[in-house]
Amino acid sequence: MKKGLLIISIALLTGNLFAQTARVQVIHNSADAAAAEVDVYVNTDLALDDFAFRTATPFLDLPAGVEINIGIAPGNSTGVGDVLLNVPVTLTENEKYIVVADGIVSASGYNPAPPLSLQVFPMAREMATNPTNVDVLVHHGSTDAPTVDVVETGVGAGTVVDNISYTEYQGYLELPTADYVLDITDETGTVTVARYQAPLATLGLDGAALTVLASGFLDPAQNSNGPAFGLYVASPAGGALLALPSVPLSVSEFDSTEFVIYPNPVNDRLTINASGIDMSEYSVAITDMLGRIVLNGNINTNNTIDVNNLSEGVYNLTLLRGNNVVISKKFVKK
């Protein structure tokens, strides 16, 4: 609640004092343990308190046409004098920006250790330019990952990101809403470093504009056993970043015709039925139409899920084995 009140206060303050504003989303992608939580200042005002790694703000209105200072301080800061990094920026009126914090704060324990920095991307989007597409901005924020390509192998789209290096952005990719398989390769495109599933259609993300970030360490052992490398997604609504699942499980290994959820629409309890499948091996994630996870966890012994606290609307229930997306179904909460 404190964090939410701070965001609202800054938005109201800047909206009242400045006629010109720009829209800005801030994403915390510094994997250094010393920066697990940071405070963010706009000029001398505390804008975000205890802002956690792999979380994003919603788009906020900040002053445009005048220079402002964005400061990053430790999570236990007592004032703007504690900032570790101060970046002066002049935003353009009515423009939209993505700002990502990358890099290392600690003096030792990380290899390599590029310093904490803010990467600013103008011309950001809060929704896709075509409602049948998903617009994807790609950012390389992994300090020990080399220059890489992103090659789509699921539908045969080929190289979608070419030679992206640490701190760089590429995009927006205007992708038809489908389920993709993304290979992260070296810059020659011949050696696959990692593989991820991007189930844009399964998650019902038509019309969304997303930021996909390379995050964490390829070699945690050289980086204080920090968080491992992965691809993470930020939505314009903010909140915790969503991990793209690695090593996707083929849907052909799971008989989708035998997977049923009911009742649909549902009031309070949703039942899962998958004939001949031991559901104890699986978990579920329920996402709203912006791709935000609103409920997740294991399936109980009765194969039911309590959705009574969800607001009315359309949701996706995604079945997972480990981190692998198996199948997804839409349902309506009454």
Automatic annotation (TrEMBL):
The keyword Nucleus does not apply. Residues 261-331 form the Secretion system C-terminal sorting domain. Keywords: Signal. InterPro entries: DUF4397, Secre_tail. Residues 22-150 form the DUF4397 domain. Pfam families: DUF4397, Por_Secre_tail. The keyword Signal applies. Residues 1-19 form the signal peptide. NCBIfam families: Por_Secre_tail. This is DUF4397 domain-containing protein. It comes from Aequorivita flava.
